[in-house]
Design brief:
The protein is α+β, with helices and mostly antiparallel strands. It is 32% helix and 26% strand. It contains six helices and nine strands; from the N terminus they run αααααβββββββββα. The protein has a six-stranded antiparallel sheet with strand order 1-2-3-9-4-7. Helix 2 crosses helix 3. The longest helix is centred in the first third of the chain and has 20 residues.
């Protein structure tokens, strides 16, 4: 067995045990769910029994995960740096596991628009949390106050806009692919809406 194979073997065993413990299950409970004997499961977790593909498939199902996730190797690119958009006061991070998703951090100083014609709608979903200050989220006909540590999630087909209230606020937003594209089109066309709207 090569060094890489030994490391993967050890990682998978640790992952099985960690997932079992996270569920609050004893060896007996997971063994019953996976239709294995308790001693077999114990030997799998401790490395005293070789890992068999059919047992890994069964354990993945019992642990409510996929075989791919169970045997996924560690990645070297854990840390990522933001792409900085100084013109719009944004920092953006792509989510490597789902390239369609983007995380955006923005400091806002302008209030929410008074004119309903400045609300934008586009396909997608957005989730945002106010890191500091207070934000006003205009969503359709609603005016919602979102304070520090509160979050909002909404479909972006609802006309929407966001702004600061009573001073600057900082927002962290997560956009799906469609929402990100909708905001990028708004920026490119000189629109007033920009992430994390």
């Amino acid at each position: 067995m090569t060094q890489d194979n030994r490391e993967l073997d050890s990682l998978v065993r640790k992952r099985i045990r960690a997932l079992r413990v996270a569920q609050g299950w004893s060896l007996e409970e997971l063994a019953a769910r996976a239709r294995l004997s308790q001693s077999t499961l114990s030997r799998i977790e401790t490395g005293q029994r070789r890992l068999a593909l059919d047992q890994l498939v069964t354990l993945a199902r019992a642990l409510d995960t996929s075989l791919d996730q169970l045997v996924e190797t560690a990645t070297d690119d854990v840390i990522s740096n933001p792409m900085i958009d100084g013109a719009h006061g944004l920092m953006r991070w792509p989510i490597k596991a789902d390239p369609g998703m983007t995380v955006v951090r923005q400091r806002m100083t302008d209030p929410a628009p008074d004119n309903p014609s400045r609300l934008r709608a586009h396909p997608g979903r957005e989730w945002l949390v106010v890191l500091s200050g207070t934000a006003i989220l205009l969503l359709g006909d609603r005016r919602l106050r979102v304070e520090t540590n509160q979050a909002a999630e909404f479909p972006t087909m609802l006309p929407h806009a966001i702004g600061a209230e009573g001073g600057p606020c900082e927002i962290l937003g997560i956009f799906d692919r469609d929402a990100r594209r909708g905001h990028q089109r708004g920026e490119d066309s000189g629109g007033t809406s920009r992430p994390p709207r």
